[in-house]
Specification:
heterodimer, A: 326 residues, two-stranded antiparallel sheet, B: 290 residues, mainly alpha, flat
């Protein structure tokens, strides 16, 4: 009777208040079911892309080894005698769970390797975007005047043209006619084209925030203390921009995946031997009446991936954006 | 744009002449098309022909057809498709946005917003083929591809407009939600106006302003989308022709189409800005002060 239960929950609440911003954001993400599901999906996709050779059933082995180029693979059938050039797509069987396409290539394998291409291209493009966008945005936002004016006019010009069309033009130029395509040039060109059109949005965002941060007291204090401009940008401005950059880049990733698929669909993206979801959709069009699965499988995967990045980007924004904290 | 197109590693002569052509044959062809002249002279004459004669040059790949003629025959198709898509997006998207805002947090609102995220994520390269699969292959209600009667335009219009409809619904909803919170809405209802009358007379007009910019912005997406949708449904518009010309390295056509698209894009954005000023007096007074 004399035992008075100690309420432990109240002390727990007090501890939570002292969480670091990153831990706080993760806690918020975990509470959002959309974020958990989309995050798990993205993670799964990354794992699939990384371990593609282990997951695709017909890899390795001395006999019937897949044709590899530059570390990436085009998958022909396990058994060479089973390979039909320019034959009709085949329905699913026990070996080919999703069937094969008109070249006898296993659809499931191509989808798995397609994830590699899709995510790989996206990571590279987003890296280029962040590099150019953040550098120029800081450059313009922190050092106003002529630098700012010049840079904002450049982004105006970039904005004056629809993104994918600009990328289409850049890719069209980099391609070498109807000759056999060098995959490094083709994919490199695709990454370059998408990266070049992606940065203006981010650079504007960074510039706006840098303009606001420049007026903060702690920047004033650092300046008064004799800290040099690059050090101020690196130590005081950039860390405060990090969450904005991460959110923006995640949301842009969805657009990049879409753009890669669209360009590949139009025959201007990843060249034929490499599996790309966009290209698989295009290749499946003639067989939509006989083998609709050929069309539906990559389409569904593409839509789910874009949706996952959209959801996750939004959730990340809600978790990180200080203005929405209340 | 001109220089960019000419920087390409292979020349159109290779494509016209074919792989077996001799060097003399290639030189003759290059001379015929003026491709052997210095680049700046080619550019000068190109610009002069556009400015002075409205002549965008001729197609290499389509038996010397003038680009101007191609634009004249193909552009109306793309314009019709884009216009139908915009109308479709407005007819579907705006009412959904309005009802989602009016019944904020209801099951309809939640369903609509989930649908919006889904729709925004389904690209036209997926939606288009799926529509064909369901309405043309599986059920044979509509034609698979082509551009003959109005019946042929239904699927391309939906494929092109669905994403814009979703974006419009989202903007209409958030914009109307903002307006509904304003003081003048409370005043209007306080002075005895019914809710529906207050919404109809006061809220919708104010809420539709931001949506107007969305229409302007979505035009770029529609142009891009028309490239894809025209390819899927084999619609003879400028998107289809442009993609075809890119694979054939048909400079004159690529340049003409790129110029046309850039011009259109700028014009639409400009007219949206002007229209914004006409509808919203606040924008005008701000500019007058500045």
């Amino acid at each position: 009777m004399s035992d008075i239960p100690v309420d432990l929950s109240s002390t727990e609440v007090k501890e939570k208040v002292t969480l670091s911003p990153a831990a706080d954001a993760i806690r918020r993400l975990k509470r959002n079911p959309a974020a958990v599901i989309s995050g798990a999906y993205i993670l799964l996709l990354i794992v699939v892309a990384l371990f593609a050779p282990l997951l695709a059933h017909n890899t390795g082995g001395e006999n019937g080894a897949p044709i590899t180029r530059a570390g990436l693979i085009t998958h022909w059938n396990y058994d060479d005698s089973d390979t039909h050039y320019n034959s009709l797509p085949a329905p699913p069987d026990s070996l080919h769970r999703l069937g094969t396409d008109n070249l006898g290539q296993d659809i499931a394998t191509r989808l798995i390797y397609g994830a590699r291409i899709s995510l790989g291209v996206t990571v590279l493009v987003v890296f280029i975007e962040a590099l150019i966008g953040v550098t120029l945005g800081l450059f313009a936002g922190y050092g106003s005047g002529l630098r700012d004016l010049l840079l904002m006019r450049v982004t105006d010009v970039m904005f004056a043209f629809p993104d994918i069309l600009l990328a289409v033009l850049v890719v069209a130029v980099l391609r070498s006619g109807n000759k056999a395509l060098n995959p490094v040039v083709s994919i490199g060109g695709l990454v370059f084209a998408l990266g070049i059109v992606a940065w203006p949005g981010l650079s504007r965002l960074v510039r706006g925030q840098a303009l606001a941060l420049r007026e903060k007291e702690y920047v004033e204090a650092a300046k008064a203390g004799g800290v040099k401009e690059p050090a101020i940008i690196w130590r005081h401005i950039l860390p405060n921009l990090l969450s904005t950059i991460i959110v923006s880049v995640t949301q842009d990733a969805a657009a990049v995946i879409l753009a890669e698929a669209t360009l590949s669909f139009l025959g201007l993206g990843v060249p034929p031997p490499f599996p790309s979801w966009g290209r698989m959709i295009m290749d499946a069009l003639p067989y939509k009446e006989t083998q609709p699965l050929l069309l539906i499988a990559p389409g569904l995967l593409l839509a789910c991936t874009v949706m996952a990045f959209n959801f996750f980007g939004d959730a990340l924004r809600d978790a990180l954006d200080p203005r929405l904290r209340q | 744009m001109f220089i960019v197109a000419h920087l390409a590693p292979s020349s159109p002569v290779d494509i016209i002449a074919g792989e077996k052509a001799t060097l003399e044959e290639k030189a003759r062809l290059a001379h015929q098309y003026g491709l052997d002249r210095p680049l700046y002279i080619q550019y000068g004459s190109y610009v002069w022909n556009i400015v002075a004669h409205g002549d965008f040059g001729r197609s290499f790949s389509r038996s010397q057809q003038p680009v101007t003629e191609m634009i004249r025959s193909d552009f109306p198709v793309t314009a019709q498709l884009a216009l139908q898509a915009i109308i479709f997006a407005m007819v579907i998207g705006l009412p959904i946005g309005v009802f989602a805002a009016l019944y904020h947090n209801s099951w309809f609102d939640r369903m609509a917003m989930a649908g919006v995220v889904a729709m925004v994520s389904v690209p036209s390269i997926v939606l288009g083929p799926l529509l064909v699969l369901f309405f043309a292959v599986h059920n044979r209600w509509l034609p698979v591809s082509g551009w003959d009667s109005p019946k042929y335009t239904i699927l391309p219009t939906i494929a092109l407009g669905a994403r814009t409809a979703a974006i419009m619904a989202r903007f209409m909803r958030s914009s109307l939600l903002d307006v509904l919170k304003q003081d003048y809405m409370r005043t209007a209802i306080a002075k005895g106006l019914s809710r529906s009358r207050a919404v109809w007379k006061h809220a919708l007009k104010n809420a539709s302003l931001p949506v107007l910019t969305v229409i302007g912005n979505s035009f770029g997406a529609l142009l891009t989308g028309s490239f894809v949708v025209e390819t899927i449904f084999q619609v003879p518009g400028i998107g289809y022709v442009s993609i075809d010309s890119i694979t054939k390295r048909d400079y004159a056509v690529i340049q003409g189409m790129a110029l046309l698209v850039a011009l259109l894009f700028t014009l639409v954005n400009l007219s949206v800005d002007i229209l914004y000023g006409v509808i919203d007096p606040r924008v005008r007074s701000q500019e007058a002060r500045a």
